[in-house]
Design brief:
116 residues; alpha+beta; four-stranded antiparallel beta sheet; two-stranded antiparallel sheet; elongated; binds ligand 2BA
Length: 116
């Protein structure tokens, strides 16, 4: 098996459940180690997935490119009644437009990487 480079950046990709497995497969196929974690969006409280991938600096753009290719955003109207904080005030009563699908991407510096 090929020696893997020490990761220096942690890509944190929050994506919809329906795109997560395809994204995970593609990352791994292209040689980027990745872990999928089940997560929940705080606003819609829908299940989504967070994929973490530790890669060398030069691979970050490719990880983002793959993510953009496989995760497409669309707009959806959501009834306010379905939101968990309805009644808190401050939100309109008519359906609100939200972005679903797509990806929210964070890239963090890795201070230290060890495997035991
Ligand atoms: P949720 O928090 O469930 O948010 C789902 C979508 O609802 C958001 O899509 C956005 O279009 C809308 N939205 C969120 N907060 C809102 C608000 N206060 N008022 C009106 N509309 C609001 P995305 O921005 O694509 O975010 C998708 C998911 O990515 C989020 O799910 C959350 O799980 C994560 N996320 C986004 N930004 C984040 C951040 N800065 N930190 C941590 N997680 C984040």
């Amino acid at each position: 098996m090929r020696e893997r480079p020490t990761p220096s950046k942690l890509c944190l990709l929050i994506v919809s459940d329906s795109d997560a497995d395809r994204l995970l497969n593609r990352l791994v196929t292209e040689g980027f180690p990745a872990t999928k974690i089940g997560s929940t969006g705080g606003f819609l409280r829908r299940g989504n997935a967070t994929i973490i991938s530790g890669v060398p600096d030069h691979a970050v753009d490719r990880v983002i490119e793959i993510t953009r290719e496989l995760c497409h955003a669309r707009r959806e109207f959501v009834p306010v009644q379905s939101l968990p904080f309805v009644g808190d005030g401050g939100f309109p009563t008519e359906p609100i437009e939200v972005r679903v699908g797509g990806a929210t991407i964070f890239v963090l510096d890795i201070e230290r990487f060890e495997q035991a």
